[in-house]
């Protein structure tokens, strides 16, 4: 579907799923005014075309606000990136990891339950073979958050 245009129903379907990814196909069909089999077919098409690549859980604000968040710049040795990414992916505290231009090779967003856990986590990241250095900035306050 990446090459095909999404119509209004596809866009509405995606919006409903963004609001509640666990919504039943029967409820989606009722809200969209189309047959359940049409919803199933459209979902399959959106998934196979790459418009929908997964379903996830968003934590409530209480769970998301607990703990400490940090942005971590990570510099790695040449050709060590793949293994470093693999190791970092195993940390449940890793929220995002991006390849970036500039001073660092990667920028990670971490959320830990405490500053003690964040400190230990940063030590664990620093111990990964291929990691040269990390530079961390702890989030003091979130000023704008436009995530859906």
From TrEMBL:
Domain HTH asnC-type: 7-75
The UniProt record lists the keyword ATP-binding: no
Keyword check for Glycoprotein: no
Transmembrane segments: none
Keywords for this protein: DNA-binding, Transcription, Transcription regulation
Pfam families linked: AsnC_trans_reg (PF01037), HTH_AsnC-type (PF13404)
Superkingdom: Bacteria
InterPro entries registered for this protein in UniProt: AsnC-type_HTH_dom, Dimeric_a/b-barrel, Tscrpt_reg_AsnC-like, Tscrpt_reg_AsnC/Lrp_C, WH-like_DNA-bd_sf, WH_DNA-bd_sf
Classification via PANTHER family: HTH-TYPE TRANSCRIPTIONAL REGULATOR LRPC, LEUCINE-RESPONSIVE REGULATORY PROTEIN
Protein name as catalogued: Lrp/AsnC family transcriptional regulator
